[in-house]
Amino acid sequence: MDKFVILGGKKLQGRVKISGAKNVSLPIMAACLLTREEVCLKDVPPLSDVHNMMKVLERLGTRVYFDNNNLKIKADVIRGEGPPVDLVSKMRASFLTAGALLGRRGRVKISLPGGCSIGRRPIDLHLKGFRALGATTEEACGYICIRAKALRGDRIYLDFPSVGATENLMMAASRALGTTVIENAAEEPEIVDLANFLNAMGAKISGAGTKVIRIEGVEELGSAVHTVIPDRIEAGTFMVAAAITRSRIILDNVILDHLKAVAAKLKEAGAELVEQNDGSILVSGENCSRPLDIKTLPYPGFPTDMQAQLMALLTLARGRSVVTENIFENRFMHVAELNRMGADIRVEGSSAFLTGVKKLQGFPVRSTDLRAGAALVLAGLAARGCTEVLEVKHIDRGYYHIDEKLRQLGADIQRVKMEEEEDTAAGEAVEHSETLNLIENTAAPR
Ligand code: UD1
Predict the structure, then answer these.
(1) Fold entry, domain 2-19+232-440
(2) What pLDDT is stored for residue 1 in this prediction?
(3) Whether this model's pTM surpasses 0.85
(4) How far is the CA of 84 from the centre of ligand 1 (A)?
């Protein structure tokens, strides 16, 4: 029930460390099911999605725990037929256990993950790939049973370079007989990191990061120690934080090469990104006010996971921008909320047409999904007055202590719990009573 209360208009300064990538931690945790031996993962962020994946693994009989900053996982036995339905419905990424369990045991029963707030999100490409490896897939009563007497390598062409399907197939194919070739594979850095991890466990994968991935099946996978790559979406979000507040900040633990499309668009808008001698990135957003045209695409194109944050920035650009979403069918939920803050955005089909405004106005808004929530926090940092971002649980799925990190940079952002609100109602003094009053007195700009 937490919410963020942000008093906008503060310049940011200083440095912030980017956490390990959520979108690589989850598939790598699933991949640990491929071995009986203990695996040690470094830099996995303790996010709510990571805790949910820990629960999935625990319910499958795996020993999984944080030992300081190291996540230790040992799946010496596997219990049950697959991950429990309550956890699969909570987190789509738990479907990534399908490829690992199929590879380890030749069978898995898993509930269908269903859609989410950003679209339908089918799994047809995962299933087509499993079938190409010799598995049968049978759907009944909301579950899917995937079975194979023996997985056999084959050529698999993906109609779309799905990240999840590429990951699931790499995991299953690592234990197949013979060689698998995935064509039109996803090329995201997360795919490369998963392949590096699987190779550290003893797999033989080449070509990850290109459209064609080759996997020679092996009989056994073993223990490994692996450090996950930095979260490129968290890094991109902090870059936009500097740009939207026209500030200068330094980011540690960033691989700029993973952010080529985002960096190119921020530079086009007027930002400067300079790699320092120590490897950190100096982001100067003082003059970041030019409008942009953005189209989301599979990597190395512009990432759909940065679309909402860039849109927040473009609400304040000097001129008109167009943002086209090509990956997910319903990923403009943040538009209505940004318009409530005074933005001028019109959606037609898969494109959003923006006319930059001089100021956003703080307002109570609701985050509907992870990146939409991040966009609203960014808008709140730049808005006049107070912004309340409700449903912070979506943001906590993918950003480790975003409020603390922003405060460390000088932002005025507080996490308010329901109980604190009740305390306020009872007349007790709270740190942010002034801020809360401001919210009550802020009229909707339109
Ligand atoms: C991953 C990321 C997510 C990111 C997305 C696209 C994780 C945990 N999540 O999600 O943050 O937004 O990549 O970069 O890494 N599709 C099908 N059939 C399938 C699979 C996918 O039609 O079997 C479609 C989807 O509906 C969507 C598109 O392909 O329109 C991309 O999906 P995909 O690349 O699979 O995304 P995820 O792996 O779910």
Answers:
(1) UDP-n-acetylglucosamine1-carboxyvinyl-transferase; Chain (3.65.10)
(2) 79
(3) yes
(4) 22
